[in-house]
């Protein structure tokens, strides 16, 4: 059973404090992973939270707006590496064989914005018993310099590459919410929830929950969106929150 799990950046950082890890939340998430039966068959991805997004906003960089400013590139990528260090350290302390994988060193976007992400290192690390820990990052972007590569995009690329059986997205909300604020149990088509999600820009998967749902619908593995308290249940094989059962993009 191979699992790809994304820990949202706002779950593991203090949203309003630049470059501040939420130690209690990170430790709780790491304990759930360390104690789960998923063992080594897990690929982790974490988002930017108050690390990447803080600097990306300062330099005006997004998934579509790039920069050629080397100081901006270093600030954004450097902050994400610092958060990745904190996550890998926390996992290591609890006995998880975590190793860092930095997407900026490997990924590219072409001039149309299409992403290319080599995944041989991730599949091999997984086969060799490591837990690869990737993160939202920057990506070299033809014609634009460097743009943001979101953790959600990474999840969508990684799940088929590692032949994931399940995909989990742990965010600060307990699932995808309908117009009344109730958690939607399952989603099988974007149209069914488009109104509640307020539509979406299909080219920008960092575009909030709408972009996330649209991207996860394209996977063949079921994806589950849930809040931090439900992480142990997800890792135990349950489907808390919202299950997004797409058609694999067919
Ligand atoms: O929080 C964004 O990753 P996300 C990473 O998964 C940066 O969207 C560099 C802001």
TrEMBL record:
Entry's Gene Ontology cellular component terms = cytosol
Could you describe the subunit structure of this protein? Answer: Homodimer.
Q: Which residues bind ATP?
A: 6-10, 49, 208, 212
Tell me the GO BP annotations in alphabetical order: terpenoid biosynthetic process
Which residues hold substrate? Answer: 48, 53, 151
Q: Of which family is this protein a member?
A: Belongs to the isopentenyl phosphate kinase family.
Give residue numbers for the site Transition state stabilizer: 15
User: What keywords were assigned to this record?
Assistant: ATP-binding, Isoprene biosynthesis, Kinase, Nucleotide-binding, Transferase
UniProt domain Aspartate/glutamate/uridylate kinase: residue ranges: 1-219
Q: What is this protein called?
A: Isopentenyl phosphate kinase
Q: Which organism is this protein's natural source?
A: Haloarcula terrestris
- For the protein in the UniProt heading, the enzyme class is transferase
A Pfam family that the UniProt record links to this protein: AA_kinase
Q: Please write the reaction equations for the catalytic activity of this protein.
A: isopentenyl phosphate + ATP = isopentenyl diphosphate + ADP
The UniProt entry's coiled-coil ranges are: none
